[in-house]
Amino acid sequence: MVITSSTYLPSEEELTVEEVNVGTASLRAAAFHMGKHCEHHNNEFMLCRQEEDDPRSCLNEGKAVTACALEFFRKLKKTCYDEFTQYATCLDKSSGDMAFNRCRLTQAVYDKCVLDNLNIERPSFGYFCEVKVHDSPRPKPPPEPKAVYPDAAPKLPDDAERLPARFGARSIFGN
Fold first, then answer.
1. In the predicted model, is pLDDT for residue 174 greater than 60?
2. Which PROSITE patterns match (predicted)?
3. Domain residues of the chain, as ranges?
4. How many CB atoms are closer than 10 A to CB 59?
5. Half-sphere exposure of 157 toward its Cβ, with a 13 Å CA cutoff?
6. Hey, what's the torsion of the CAs at 71, 72, 76, 79, to 10 degrees?
7. Of residues 93 and 1, which shows the higher confidence score?
8. Closest Cα to residue 102, out of 113, 117, 119, 87?
9. I need a labelling partner for 169 at 20 to 30 A (CA). Which of 7, 71, 74, 153 fits?
10. Phi and psi (nearest 5°) for 91?
C-alpha cells in the first residue's frame, strides 16, 4: 500500500492492547463458547472492516473483540478451570491435528460446566454459518461516488485521413 506524508497512521499507544496469551489447544477448546459469547463484538468488527475498507477506522471494534475474549477466558478460569484444562490437554495430546472426536468425554464435562456456570450453551453444528442480521449502532458509511474519468484520447475528426493498417487486417485471425 502506497502512503503519503498526509496519511494518518495510528500511534503505538492506540495500537497497544493486552493480548490473549493462550496456546492453540486452549483457543481450539474454547472456540465454540467464546465465539458465541463474543459474537456481537466480532460481527461488529467484521461489519466495520467490510464497510469501511480501512482497518485504521475499526481499531476500537478490534479492541472490543480482544477485551471480550480476555473477559471470557477470565470467567472461564474462575469457574471451569479444571474441566477446561483437561479438555485442552486432551485436544493437545490425543492427536497430531487436535481432532475433537477423541476428546468427547472431556468435552461433555467442559460443556456442562460452561452451561451451568456461564450459561453459554455449545452452539449447534453449522451455527456460525447461519445467516444472521446484525443491528449495528454505527451509522452506515455513505457510498463512494462513482468515478468519472475523462476520455483518454480525443476522437479523430470525421475528415481525418484514414490510412490502411501497416501490417494488414486482423480479420485473418478470426477465420
1. no
2. CHCH
3. 23-132
4. 15
5. 3
6. 70
7. 93
8. 87
9. 153
10. -60, -40
Q: CA 42 to CA 59: how far, in whole Å? A: 12
| Average of per-residue pLDDT across 49-70 | 93
Closest CA to 49 of 33, 38, 60, 39: 60
**Type of residue found at 69:** A
Count of CB atoms within 10 A of residue 39's CB?
16
Q: The C-alpha cell of 76 is what? A: 472461564
DSSP 160: S
Structure-block grid coordinates of residue 167: 501490417
Q: Grid coordinates in use for 63?
A: 479492541
Distance CA 40, CA 133 (A): 11
pLDDT(21) > 60? yes
Query: What is the distance between the alpha carbons of residues 35 and 45, in angstroms, rounded to a whole number?
Result: 13
How many residues are recorded in the chain? 175
Taking 70 as the threshold, does the pLDDT of residue 6 lie above it? yes
pLDDT band for position 89 (50/70/90)? very high
Query: In terms of Cα–Cα distance, which of 83, 102, 80, 105 is closest to 92?
Result: 102
Which residue type sits at 74?
A: R
